[in-house]
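Long-time lurker. I teach an intro course on protein structure, and each term I like to show students one example going from raw sequence to a predicted 3D structure in token notation. This year I'd like something fresh instead of my usual example. Would anyone be willing to generate the tokens for the chain below so I can use it in lecture? Attribution to the forum is fine with me.
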Amino acid sequence: MKAIRLPISIFLLLIFLGCEDKSEPPKMDVERYVNLLKAGDYDHWELPDFNSKDIPKLLSYRNETEIISDYPINALSSAWFPECSLGMYILWTVESIRARSIGSELLTRTFPSLNPFVKNRVDLEYLEQTAQLQQEVADSYFEWWESNKNKDFTEFDEIDPLADTEYRWH
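-- Reply from a regular --
Happy to contribute to a lecture. Here you go:
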């Protein structure tokens, strides 16, 4: 039996390594995305293919405190967080648009960082993801957008909305 397991394992490994992921980020509107997240029915491995035109609608959900527990995360992350507020996840989605626009070095496929949580910028310490923390992050993104929305996105996409805070994405 051992003699059979080794060739099968090698065969499966070769198939796995030979398969290139050619999946594309899903295309959908913001309302459908939010409804799927709320219902726990978002079944894609990537964040949607949103762009800067979607940011105002996404930001309208920035203060949502509803907890979601079925959402895609960066497969490279070794941390697992079973829950996230919808608003924080939406803010992470906005960060994805910005990160893709500038070709961020932290970008993995459509994920702008490892997880949809912020941590301390200086010591990288994990922070309890409270409603107050979400509000501060939401305010930073809203101000960043409102201060720049009349410009071409490429004129301000490199400005980190959290630059003047003590936070950064995990």
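Some talking points for your students: The helical segments are 2-18, 30-39, 55-59, 86-102, 131-148. Residues 1-22 have pLDDT under 50 and may be disordered.
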